[in-house]
Design brief:
The protein has eight helices and three strands. It is mostly helical. It has a three-stranded parallel beta sheet.
């Protein structure tokens, strides 16, 4: 059994540094960054040291404007910082969807990634899965990376996500 990318990254960090890491996933499948903004309170209540925000695929397929996407991400960051100003954030730029899927929105993936990079500062970093995903797709078929053929990573895709995140935390 392989955990999804967030738990995988937490497990590898715990092993690497011999530390207790408590990972909680408050996401819900099929939701957008707007849902994340409206449902950030359970995250806030944890007073987390590190928050991974991985929104974008459902925003893109729902045609959420880049400006609204940015506002939704920023609101989540600000909500957490209100209770823990020292919190750090990893903003994950989404994989791309199957271009043959009718809800695929290739015009949004790079725009969302670029917006996330605008939000980076000394305590906010970008995990650019979008660029890595696009690079891997130059060498592999989309079906090699996806679990549903449309917009969800398979085990290999989750490893890509985890590796991009871990590359920010482990030299």
């Amino acid at each position: 059994f392989q955990p999804f990318f967030g738990q995988m990254a937490a497990d590898i960090l715990a092993q690497k540094y011999g530390a207790e890491i408590y990972f909680k996933n408050f996401s819900k499948s099929g939701m957008t960054s707007g849902w994340g903004k409206e449902n950030i309170q359970p995250v806030v209540d944890q007073k987390p040291d590190l928050v991974i925000l991985a929104w974008g695929m459902n925003d893109a397929s729902g045609r959420v404007s880049p400006q609204d996407y940015k506002a939704n991400i920023l609101a989540q960051i600000e909500a957490v910082r209100a209770v823990n100003p020292q919190a750090e954030f990893i903003l994950v730029a989404t994989m791309t969807a199957n271009p043959e899927w009718t809800a695929s929105a290739p015009e949004f993936y790079d725009q969302y990634r670029d917006i996330l990079s605008q939000l980076c500062d000394s305590s906010v970093v970008l995990a650019d899965v979008t660029s890595v995903w696009e690079y891997v797709l130059q060498h592999k078929k989309f079906a090699d990376l996806t679990g549903n053929g449309v917009n969800h990573p398979n085990d290999f895709g989750h490893r890509i996500y985890a590796e991009v995140i871990l590359s920010l935390l482990i030299e």
